[in-house]
Structures are given as structure tokens and as C-alpha cells.
Design goal:
alpha/beta, six-stranded mixed sheet, two-stranded antiparallel ribbon, 18 helices, about 50% helix, elongated
């Protein structure tokens, strides 16, 4: 019955509207009236008594203030009721906020998709009729930094089965210059098989001290042990791992090693060189791998000495995976898992040619990561088999 009366009232009002401008004006008035009515209801609940009744405490109504709401129809001036001790913080229109949730969410989503601040300004104005400056958009997206800081410092598991480290290089402005920095992504799989991004850190110099700081942060957040730590052949990472996680098995990505080995090989030799390299990493054990490497060395010594030297110098880290059963090998011999994540990240951040600072880069990467969360925050398939093999190999370390 109540809904019927409301419908009849709306119909009678609309019948009096004879043009589009009048209808839009009516919409604005209904929106304004609706918001103000909700605010009055909130204040009544906050104070505990009806307007006009006797107050139940020293805190009473204290007039109202005006606030401009930015909506998809433009600016709307509303009256916000106040109380004497300023303890009233309405849910309908929170303090210090001047826009609707729709526009806020749109700005955040567009930023996450990689749009520049100026492009966001144009889109919001054309779509919602609301004009922002690029600095205002920056202020809006900066509200995320508190969430990002909490995410970056959240507690982690005490033990991880595998951790992968890989970086994406971005141009970032610093001290009036544009320099290249690496956003290092750390992805881990815990002992229950849950895969997650553990941290995002921007580093200027890829050095032992940078890696040590990154790994030290993991320990500060509760990580005590990492069984396998996999990455490209990053300079200084071995020293950092030895200092922070000395028990971790270091595995250098085979795919990266192959790319580096073939970089200076002539096209006519690549197929034969690749055949010799394949015999190394597809070996059943260390002994077979050694024999395959000797063949590779004998075939190409004097022609591709740099590639041979690289395998010799990094042999232990390149072939660590051969000491373990197939299910474990498959996970640790390459960084394809994290490289796949990073390739999707690049699609979201490629429009950002130069970031104004480190914070802006982290903000953009974090938002992009949230957009593709379903692709990386998940349980690893076939984990029972992997866990059983891990337990056999690390019975003394798995709790």
C-alpha cells in the first residue's frame, strides 16, 4: 500500500514536468532532498532524540553547514546537520569527502588501468560533467597509500616453499632527472600451496644491499625460512640470501640462462648449441648434466667461451633443481610463474611513460596487481604431490 502511494505521488509530480530541463532540475532537487533527509535521520540516531524533543545529553543539534557534492550530474549544494561536540560523522556523506562513490571508484579504476591523470580528468568531465585538475586526481589516488602501506607491512607465513623474485624497469623522476629503476616483485607459495605476492619494492641499484633490505623486510614480517628462492642471475643476490636465509636453495632461472647463452651465438649455430644446452637441463641427475656440459664445452670452446664460462660460474645455482623429484623441479627451474604475472602488469602500466616519484610507481603497480588478483592469488594445482615430495626432502625443516 505504501509503495502504491509513493508511485502515485511520483506520477503526479512527473505529470507536471513538461520539458527535459525541468525533469533534470527535479532530479537534482530529489537527490538533494534525499541526501539531506538521510543526514537528518543519521543525526537523530546519533543524538538519540527527535528534532523538537528534549535533549538527552549535553550534545545537541547545532545548525548546519553547507557542502558541495560532486555527482555525475554536476555539483549539488547540500546542508549537513551539525552537533555541538562535533562527534557526528555521517555515513551518507563522510567528513572531508565531496564526491560520490561512483566517481571515486571510476578515478581509481582508470588509474589502475594505466590512464594518465590528464586522461582521467578528460574522461570524468566528459562522462560525469565534473571538472577536476590533475593535482586533484593525484590527491584522490594518494588516499590509497595508507592501504598500500598496510599491505606492504602485513604479517606473512613463517615458512615458504618457494619464492620467486623478478623485476620490471620503469622510468622514474628523481632530483630533476629521469632515471631507470627496478620494481622488484616477490611472489611466494606457502606450505599450504597458496600463491601470493609478498612485496613490491622499487630499487635504484640492483645490488647486494638492495636485495638484503628486501629479504630483511620479509623476516621483519614473520618469514623465518624459505626452502627454494628462484630468480634471474641477479648480481649480489647470492650474498644477500646467504646473509638472511642461509638454508635456502638458490635456483637461477634456466630460461634466462638459455637466452643469455644464445645472445651472441650466430644464427647458423643456434639450433646445434640449443641441442647441447637442452641435454644439460633435461638430464636425470647431476652426473648426466656434467657429461652433457662437457660435450657442450668441447663442441663450442674457442667460439662461444662467454656462454661456457657463464654455465661454469653459476653451475651450482643452475643445476640445483636436478637434486629434487619431478614435481618440485617443474616449479623451481624457471621464473615463468612470476614473469607471467609481470607481463600482465606491463599491460596496465605501459601508458605511464615516466612516474613522478617512487610512490607513484608503487601505487600504479599495486592497483594493477589488484585488478589481476584472480590470476596470481590462488592455490597451486597438484600441491599434495609437491608437498609430499618436499616433506621427504626437507623433513628436518618442515614443521
Amino acid at each position: 500500500m505504501k509503495d502504491q502511494k509513493i508511485d502515485e505521488l511520483l506520477e503526479s509530480i512527473l505529470n507536471q514536468v513538461d520539458d527535459k530541463e525541468s525533469l533534470l532540475d527535479l532530479q537534482d532537487k530529489l537527490f538533494k532532498r534525499g541526501v539531506e533527509t538521510l543526514l537528518k535521520s543519521e543525526l537523530k540516531a546519533h543524538l538519540g532524540y527527535e528534532e523538537g524533543d528534549k535533549p538527552i545529553s549535553k550534545n545537541t543539534r547545532n545548525g548546519h553547514s553547507q557542502k558541495t557534492l560532486k555527482t555525475n550530474k554536476g555539483d549539488v549544494l547540500i546542508k549537513v546537520p551539525r552537533d555541538r561536540d562535533s562527534s557526528f560523522n555521517p555515513v551518507t556523506v563522510p567528513k572531508h569527502e565531496t564526491m560520490t562513490e561512483t566517481i571515486y571508484d571510476a578515478i581509481i579504476l582508470l588509474y589502475a588501468k594505466g590512464m594518465s591523470n590528464s586522461d582521467i580528468v578528460d574522461f570524468i568531465e566528459q562522462t560525469y560533467g565534473v571538472k577536476y585538475s590533475t593535482s586533484q586526481v593525484s590527491i584522490i589516488t594518494n588516499t590509497l597509500m595508507e592501504d598500500i602501506e598496510q599491505w606492504q607491512s602485513r604479517p606473512l607465513q613463517d615458512q615458504y616453499a618457494m619464492v620467486w623474485i623478478d623485476g620490471i624497469h620503469y622510468k622514474i623522476r628523481q632530483d630533476g632527472k629521469v632515471i631507470s629503476k627496478a620494481a622488484m616483485i616477490v611472489l611466494g607459495v606457502d606450505m599450504q600451496g597458496m600463491q601470493d605476492i609478498l612485496s613490491i619494492d622499487v630499487v635504484e641499484n640492483e645490488s647486494a644491499s638492495a636485495w638484503m633490505g628486501m629479504l630483511k623486510d620479509l623476516t621483519m614480517r614473520g618469514v623465518e625460512d624459505i626452502l627454494f628462492l628462484c630468480s634471474d642471475n641477479l648480481t649480489g643476490l647470492d650474498k644477500a640470501i646467504e646473509a638472511i636465509f642461509p638454508k635456502s636453495i638458490r635456483q637461477v632461472c634456466i630460461v634466462h640462462q638459455i637466452r643469455n647463452s644464445l645472445k651472441f651465438v650466430s644464427s647458423k649455430d643456434k639450433q646445434k648449441v640449443m641441442q647441447d644446452i637442452r641435454a644439460i637441463y633435461q638430464a636425470d641427475n647431476q652426473e648426466q648434466a656434467r657429461k652433457a656440459f662437457q660435450t657442450f664445452k668441447e663442441n663450442w670452446q674457442g667460439k662461444y667461451d662467454k656462454a661456457i664460462k657463464s654455465w661454469e660460474e653459476n653451475w651450482d645455482n643452475l643445476t640445483a633443481f636436478l637434486e629434487y623429484p619431478p614435481a618440485i623441479r617443474k616449479l623451481i627451474y624457471t621464473t615463468n610463474i612470476i614473469e607471467s604475472f609481470n607481463s600482465v602488469l606491463r599491460k596496465y602500466t605501459r601508458n605511464k611513460k615516466v612516474f613522478p616519484n617512487d610512490q607513484s610507481a608503487v601505487k600504479s603497480i599495486y592497483l594493477a596487481a589488484q585488478q589481476i588478483r584472480v590470476k596470481w592469488q590462488r592455490s597451486r594445482a597438484g600441491w599434495n604431490q609437491v608437498y609430499n615430495q618436499l616433506y621427504i626432502c626437507f623433513e628436518d625443516r618442515i614443521k
